[in-house]
Amino acid sequence: MKKILLLCLVLIAIQAFGQTDNLNENLENALQQAAAKGWSGSAIVSKGDKILLEKGYGFADRETKRPQSAETFFSIGSITKQFTAAAILKLETLGKLKLTDPLSKHFPDTPVDKSGITIHQLLIHAAGFPGAIGDDYENVDADQFAKLAFASPLLFAPGQQYEYSNVGYSLLGIIVEKTSGMGYEKFLREHLWLPAGMKHTGYLLPGFKKENLATGYQDGKRWGSAMDRPWMPDGPGWHLRANGGVLSTVGDMQRWYKALKNNVVLPKTATDKMFTPHIAEGPAGQSHYGYGWVVQNLDGKPLIWHNGGNGVYNANMTFVPSDDICVMVSSNSNDHISDDVAMQLLGIILGKKFMAAEEDAPYRNNPVTLAIHRVLLEKGPEYFSKNSDAVLREAGFDFDNDMQLLGVGERLEEAEKWEEGVALFETYTRLFPRIVVAWNRLGKCRMAKGDKVGAKAAWEQSVALRPNGNPAVKWLAEM
């Protein structure tokens, strides 16, 4: 399960930085300082037709001391979604589909409750699908994924609200294949990436070499790269494909920005749809979702961005169309993410100072989740364990939807409330015994509080449910 980070730009001061003569130096100094604090990754900054900076910092591989460079390949995470959205819009311009098409037009076996979901609703995360229904590295094919998605309960009636969903974008990727008659990556490469001059973007077709990929580090430990993970012969399984995991370079991503800006791969009518603020991401309405992009207001002009990460890699792509500014930053370690670096660079160019702030995804930040969390902290894990069903009913919990329990559990883990986390995930696994992520997190909480026997039991149950592509296999081996 990916944690969704929604970037909230907060203007905290207006400060004059150096003028154009010193701009490159200011950008370089900022990145050198970030690298000195532990950030490693690649960055590109452009304004107009001028590349102000294109460089790598720190190590792409700490053990071998291989340095990051502008040519280092990295995972762009959920920035992949803009490519899927662009592919859908390309197919619309070719007359192959309509954004008003219901799922039933492309999936004849769609169940009744999901048959009326439109392509538009999938694009703006308003279809009602949950964030994820499996592990990124579980190798399920398109048919298996569609069956899993259609069997999962909707969180709400389609079109009623926003809920960020990797599931919806994977379904869009399958629609790309069904409509075009081509593989997802092949269609994007032929119709989007190569026309944009992007020769180093994709899953497998660019022929990536492992020694050119950034090695990921999670909590200070070597995680490896995408090529160390179990993929299918034609790319990742569909829990990841089309919603995340595309590999690229900062240079290729800047070429993508230029291709969109200059209408090289899509007509202006299509890019206008991409950048339209279709739906508010939260109750405050500080940001809106377009098609694969987030749209915010910056001093009266649009700021367009998206980030992506998997708890290891993190990337951020941001641009200001009115000023023709584009910033792309990657990072290969989860302790120093690219969002903060990207906002610092943007502030330098604009002569302002920004900070990045997290806004919880809706499944983490809602009255039900907050009420459950409050009981666990105020009355303790023992009280919760003895009265969990009553506590959940009192909070208004939907016993057919596990996502709110996941939201509570994530908060507890981040605060290192291990006793409370064990109580929460024991209830979670009792109510939803086939959710692999719940068993995995129960094991992690038990291990953190020193209960190795309990952790082993939880992870063994997880592996029994999903023997392939399950991180619990590695955790058990390490025990």
Give the secondary structure arrangement, pairings included.
Elements: E1 6-14, H1 20-36, E2 41-47, E3 50-57, E4 59-61, E5 66-67, E6 74-75, H2 80-93, H3 103-106, H4 112-115, H5 119-123, H6 142-151, H7 166-180, H8 184-193, E7 216-218, E8 221-224, E9 247-248, H9 250-261, H10 268-274, E10 279-280, E11 288-289, E12 294-298, E13 301-309, E14 314-320, E15 325-331, H11 338-350, E16 352-359, H12 367-395, H13 403-414, H14 418-431, H15 436-448, H16 452-465, H17 471-478
Antiparallel strand pairs: 1-16, 2-3, 2-15, 4-5, 6-9, 7-8, 10-11, 11-12, 12-13, 13-14, 14-15
Helix pairs in contact: 1-11, 2-7, 2-8, 6-7, 12-13, 12-14, 13-14, 14-15, 15-16, 16-17
- Assign the CATH architecture of the largest domain: 3-Layer(aba) Sandwich
Task: Please report which band the strand proportion falls in: under 5%, 5-15%, 15-25%, 25-35%, 35-45% or over 45%.
Answer: 15-25%
User: Major sheet: order of its strands?
Assistant: 3-2-15-14-13-12-11-10
Distinct helical segment count: 17
Overall, the morphology is globular
What is the count of distinct domains? Answer: 2
Number of strands: 16
Rg on CA atoms, Å: 22 Å
As a percent range, the share of helical residues equals 40-55%
Report the CATH C-level class of the largest domain.
Alpha Beta
- In the predicted model, the low-confidence regions spanning at least 5 consecutive residues are 1-19
Which structural class should the secondary elements be placed in?
A: alpha+beta
In this structure, how is the largest beta sheet organized? 8 strands, antiparallel
**How widely separated are the two ends?**
23 Å
- Overall pLDDT metric: 89
Task: Look up the CATH topology of the largest domain.
Answer: Beta-lactamase
CATH evolutionary superfamily of the largest domain: DD-peptidase/beta-lactamase superfamily
